[in-house]
Amino acid sequence: MENPAADSRPGSAANRRVALIGNPNVGKTTVFNILTGMRQKVGNYPGVTVEKKVGRLAGKDAIDIIDLPGSYSLSPKSLDERIAYDVLMGHVEGEDAPDLAVCVVDASNLERNLYLVTQVIDVGLPVIVALNMTDAAEEAGLQIDVPGLQEALGVPVIPMVASQNEGLGKLKYQMRKEELPPRATRQWSIMPVVDVVLPELMEALEGKVEKKGRFIEALQCLTNDTMLESWENRAPVFHAHVLETREMLEEQKAPFRQAEIMGRYGWLSPLVARVTTRKIDPSQRTLSDKIDAVLTHRIAGPLLFGLLLLLIFEAVFSWAEPAMDLIELGVVNLGSGVRTVFPEGLVTDLVVDGMITGVGNVAVFLPQILLLFFFLGLMEDTGYMARSAFIMDRLMSRVGLSGGSVVPLLSSFACAIPGIMAARTLANPRDRLITILVAPLMSCSARLPVYTLFIAAFLPTGTILGLFSFQGVAMFSMYLLGTVMAFVAAFVLRRIVFKGESSFFAMELPPYRMPRFRQIFWRMIDRSKAFVVRAGKIIFGMSIILWILARFPVSDADPGLAAQRADADQRAESSRVEMVASGMSEEDALSAVETEMADEYYTLDAAEAGYQIEHSFIGMLGHGLEPIMRPLGFDWKISAGIVSAFAAREVIISALATIYSVGDVDEDSPLLRDKLKADTYEDGSPVYTPLVAVSLLVFFVLALQCMSTLAIARRETNTWKWPAVMWLYMTGLAYLFSLVIYQGGMALGWG
Amino acid sequence: MTLLDMKPGQRSRITGWSTPEPPSRLLEFGLLPGTEVEIVRYAPLGDPIDLKVRGYHLSIRKSEAGHVLVEKL
User: Fold this and answer.
1) Cα-based distances in Å from B33 to A113, A255, A258, B71
2) Per-domain residue ranges of chain B
3) Structural domains of chain A, ranges and CATH numbers in brackets
């Protein structure tokens, strides 16, 4: 907007758009939540994974607030920062630049925070500085001369304590004021060799970038390769010009890449020294330092972190269980309730087995997600999250990850869904992606029933060295295999797929703070909402598809079974007639017959269900897959079970129960176990040998048998590419391992 | 002398970087020539390091710290 009249928008601040920006950990989200309340919309920026949060300021003037991702700098190092820069510059497709930028700043860490402020000022927007956490600054003995700071920067500075809701009224007032604060001018100076080349570069941007944004765009392109790349096709002249300039500066041995940073800090350091007074000697240990001495202590630190992990693990693993059971019970009751009201038939089946089950498949994850995000919120809010990364970094760096991956990976032992969501806490996008890709290898709780059934049914009892039970060791081995493979996969991905991308680690250790439970609660709701809305849709849809696959095509009943049923019906009828004849009331006779025939009908129902699934699409898929799965030792029934387990791993048990016609049973059912053991091929050899069981177990450890994981990975990476990669490499691994185990075992004569 | 020659609690001033292209994020975090740095502690497993710089705590790995040239204060 070159026209100054357009800036003032005479009459009101209506339809104004305000961007909220700041470093991570400065309370920006708190400010956003207070300003917008529940009037928030979460989406994605086009084509990228970065979350776009927009909210509306209360009142009738329709002021939209855009919550930009936490950024240390506008010279983008990450996708988050790139988005922040693009939004401020008006480079996002279909969106104008905002009318005003509010910079949230941590008063206790002024110098580094103001670095970003000077960049935002250079973008050319009107700026307001929200000087947050003035209480923390005071505690640290820092006194800030606010009028002095305001004058030095040339923009309004509003002191506040957002966590106590102090000072936000003034901010709202400023945001609503008809007249926007005037744009500040750049006051820092850049080294002369760079200063002389910039005007020419800025000229080359004419017609591409608005005049006020040309300085920062030219400067960023000169010093930042990814920024320059984006102009290669759009402005080849400018692109070539920058490359030439770089070459020239390199010849002069001018450290131009550091020019911006040195220039800004060169101006800021004396400014900050001028407007702050320290009342406490800076070398004095603060309370936060004293806490750190314990929590990051050489021995106590890892020990306490281990205990905390144990607690989180326990919570997600066991505390969530009653709630999950309750949800499952609710789903079952709702289903049978619907069945009593509506007539039997396809539509009712679709509603109960497809839709209600689908909703249940989504809802059942909520207790774990809520609990995990409570703990993650607590860790982030208190500042402990950074310490846990500090403690674990050394171990994780060996496989090319950083300390921040520990919590998401361990959470995945309970369930990969919250684990993958927890990877959001990782600042480095590559680390985050690798963590997401390997998280499903950690043995989640849904694999446990599968392990239980097959280990109990097929592995010998007895002990090793009289100490450890065979079956216990087998169970432990499954967990170990998954974990080891996750680390191997991370290592391979880091060394091969993401090779060559520069890696370094720099992390702020923010001061400890009391947790603000309101914030934590907000985030729990936020994350759960994101899960239900985004991943939930996919899970729900896939549940229905799987139901269709199991239910269709509807086959005519097996003639043998039909005859049996007709016979049973006839006997039931005749015995009812007999009872009535002997003086029993109609009702009593009916219920007596029902009791008498219950077992027979149960067996019949189960057999018919087994027949139906064998002739359904899933049965066909099982038969179709058999040639591929035979080398692993799996027949069509196991293959069909594996296909249905895509809904959720534990579903293989109910699928096998249906196929083996034992009705509705769980993994501890001796009935199912005996059926499996008794099953033979046509030549009389058993379908399940201990070797087949081990092959199947390993398959389940490694394969990505979970549509919900794919759905959440799609949601978190915003593309189907990574879920596809994940599914392919995990299924490939599973196939390879099972193949080697089964074929190797056969060759050794263990079959 | 590099940052790694300093003991926890010791204060030093950055004189430069031993690589021609130091990671710009570290410069943006304020690790510039002339800046005072204190090593607060090493992580329990020996890496990374907790630094105090410009009034806040920053954690970087030894591999980067080894490139930071300092003089003792």
Assistant:
1) 19, 13, 11, 11
2) 3-31+38-62
3) 4-176 (3.40.50.300), 192-254 (no CATH)
